[in-house]
Structures are given as structure tokens and as C-alpha cells.
Amino acid sequence: MQFSEKMTRIETRATAALASIYGLRMLGMFLILPIFAIYAEKLQGGGNHALIGLALGAYGFMQVIFQLPFGMASDRFGRKKLIYLGLIMFAVGSVFAATAQDIYMVIFGRAIQGAGAISAVVTALVADSTREEHRTQAMAMIGATIGVTFAVSLVAGPILNQWIGVSGIFWLTAVLSILAIGVVKFAVPEPLHAHFHSDAQAAPAKIREVLRDSQLLRLNFGTFCLHGAQMAMFMVVPFAIKNSTGMNENTHWQIYLPVLVLSFILMVPAIIYAEKKAKLKPVFISAVALMLLTQMAFMFSLGSLWGIVATLFSYFVAFNILEASLPSLISKMAPVAAKGTAMGIHNTAQSFGMFLGAALGGWLSHSYGNSMVFVFCAALMLIWFGLALGMQAPPSVKTKMFHIQEGYNDEQAAKLVQDIRAMDGVYEVVAIPSETMLMVKLENQRSKEFQAALSQAIMNRIGE
């Protein structure tokens, strides 16, 4: 049995198509982020920034409610049917938001958008559409899509606003949602086997186990803080740029583009160093500390162009490192058989942070002024920094999955696990016969040649 690192054309096509659907969901949140607060202030009722924050955060609130149930329902009713439903809801919500004359209708539209919470379903369909040994690669493609979508949105949002306005952006996302249904129907092949995947989906039976894990709780609180501060910040920064520099919101991309590019340039070597040298914890803690200092700096830097540029650059360096590190840490520290559940809870914490950050950021800026928003964000970062200091250093491992034949009984699965666990370079191994899957954490501080040979040895043992 030969081990192959390459995905087939069908796997690549399905993953790319589903990654684009995932990216569309992120566009719904991020494309309006840099210009929404200024737009919403002009709507009837938009003078109350607390309502603007609620409109921005309503999407995340509904994601919290429906994200895990949508994923679980797809096991029963079918992946594509749930994705079609979610995309239709997203389109309907976009139409309501596009035609809104007051802030209350925007809140309603954003809530409907968020209720079409198909992220977990898309992840499950990716798992259905790829072989076990290529699952990690497929999920990495989705992760890269999310990062690129965020960066592109901050630049594209102001440009699109100049051409078609925020209402036009909502119309655009509605049209893209309908077109996405065709992408799912015609570009994503029907998977041969659709079943539950422990590596990609949340299992109700494992939720309590994950919630009791203190290390994972630290990370979940971290993503809550990171995205809560992000949404709160964008309740203030667009106004600050406009008021202190005189720049129209349509030209704010001229600030976001250079700071994003430079921050990505710094982020990449930091992540490579953290992974290759097993220094993920110190790099992670340093990024949290930088985020804390940045939130404090925001209180004093928003009165000048260069103060804004410098602080935003610092923010995006820290944000990019943390955004890339958190899923990696979850994967390394979660029990291998509960990885999907851990990621599901992590994503839910992220959505809740988006909701609460936007809602509290709007209320604080309206009731107490802009500085209080950053006091709130700095307080979150200070708590996170204290928790991160006590975090266990994550093991230097990466997860690989292998297909095992149907028919393994408990005794055979236990023997397989015992044999593979005894191999040099194996950190953790779990066999799940019901999913015809073997999940293995391999030590990452080995050469590529060693890891390839170890993967081949595991394949050979499975094929015996």
C-alpha cells in the first residue's frame, strides 16, 4: 500500500469549491466591517451606536445558536440540502439589509444572514469529499481562504462602497449566495460515503469532555477575546480615521492595504519559527502581550494619521499571529478523537466574541465615549494574557488520518493502535472503526523524510 501526499483532481475541485463557499460566509461578516458603522449612523435610529453594534453583531449571535445544530442536522438530512437552506437564508437576510431604511431592519436582516450557519456543514462535506490522509490539507485550504478573505475584505469594502454603497454590497452578497448554490450543486461531487467525522464535526457526547479541558478553555476564551476586540474596535476606528484625517470612508483602504501587507510579511516568519522550533507558546504569549499594548495605545493614537497607521500595524501583526496560532493550538492540544468537537466549540466562542464585542463596543462608545471601548478591549487582553502565561506548552505534533478497512472489531482495533503507538515518532493514536479511520499525532521535530517513512510504515501496518 503506497502512501500518497497528493489530492486527486476531484478532491481538489470539491475542496476549492467548498472553500469558496466558506469564504462567502466570511465576506458576509468582513466586507462591511470597515465601513458599516459610518453607513449605519445615517440610517433612521443609527444615531444610537448601541444599535449599530447590535446590527453588526447580530450575525455572530445567530451563528452561536445555529452553527452546531446545522452541522448535526446535516448528518440526518444531507449536507447539500442544509447548505442550500443556509445560502438561501443568507441571501434573504442580505436582501432585507440591502433594502432597509432604518437600523432595526438591518438588525433583522443581519440576524437572518447569521441564521444560515452552514460553516460546520461545509466542513463536514469537505470531510466526506476527501480521503482521510488528505483531510488536514483540505482543512488548511479552508483556513487559508478565511485569512485571505479577511484581508481582501478590509481593502475591498471601502472600494466597493465607493462604487455601489453598503446597500449594493448586501445585494452583491445576496447574488453571490444564489450563485453559490449552483457551485455546490455542480462543482462539488456527491460524496460516496457521508457519515460523521470525529476530526471535522462536533460530537454531542464529547462536548462535556472538551468543556472540562482547562487548556482548551484558555484557548476558547482567547478566540472570544480576539474577535470581541476586533468587532468593538471597528465600532470606533472608522470614525477616528474619518475625523482625524479627513479621509472619506471610501479611501480608508489606503491605510488598511499597506499595514495588512506589512503585517503579513512579519507574521509568516513568526509562525514558521514557532512551528519549526517548537516555540509556539512564547510566540503566542508575545502576540497576546503585543495585542494588550496595542489596545492601550489605541486610547491615545487615534488623533493623528501616523498614530492610527502605527497602531493598526501593531494590531494586525498581533491579530494575524494569534488568528493563525489558535486553530493550530486547538489541534495540538485537543484529544485526537475529539478534534472536531474542540474546533466546533472554538468556532462558537469566536462567533460569540463577534456578537458581544460589537454589541458592547457600540454601547460603550455611545454611552461613555471611544476611549472606554479600548479600556474594555485592554481588560479582555489583560485577562487573556494572564491565562496564556499559565498555558501548557503544546506538544510539537501534527495530525494525520488514515483509512482503515471496514470490519475491524474492538480487539483488532486495539491491536492496531498498540502496534502503531510503539512506532518511533508517534505521539498519540486512536482507531475509530465505525468511521473506518485511524487518527495519529506524529512528532513534528523530525525530518520530512522520517515523517514520510513513518506514514508509509503506518499504511503498511494497516494494509497487513
Question: What does this entry show, briefly?
Answer:
The protein is mainly α and 464 residues long. It has helices at residues 9-30, 36-41, 49-77, 79-98, 103-115, 119-129, 135-187, 204-211, 214-233, 237-245, 253-276, 280-301, 305-333, 339-368, 370-389, 410-421, 448-463, and strands at 397-403, 426-432, 437-443. It has 17 helices and 3 strands.
State Rg.
Answer: 22 Å
Structural class: mainly alpha
What is the number of strand segments? Answer: 3
Report helical residue fraction: over 70%
The CATH class of the largest domain turns out to be Mainly Alpha
Strand order of the largest sheet: 1-3-2
Average the pLDDT over all residues and give the rounded result: 91
How many distinct domains?
A: 3
Q: Which spans of ≥5 residues are poorly predicted at pLDDT below 50? A: none
Strand and helix order = HHHHHHHHHHHHHHHEHEEH
Would you tell me which CATH topology of the largest domain applies?
Growth Hormone, Chain: A
Shape: globular
CATH architecture of the largest domain: Up-down Bundle
Molecular structure report:
The chain has 464 residues and is mainly α. The chain has 3 domains: 1-201, MFS general substrate transporter like domains (Growth Hormone, Chain: A), CATH 1.20.1250; 205-394, Growth Hormone, Chain: A; 397-463, Alpha-Beta Plaits (2-Layer Sandwich). The protein is 74% helix and 5% strand. Strands 1-3-2 form a 3-stranded antiparallel β-sheet. Strand 2 and strand 3 form a beta hairpin. Helix 11 packs antiparallel against helix 12 (280-301). The longest helix is centred in the middle third of the chain and has 53 residues, at 135-187. It is globular, with a radius of gyration of 22 Å.
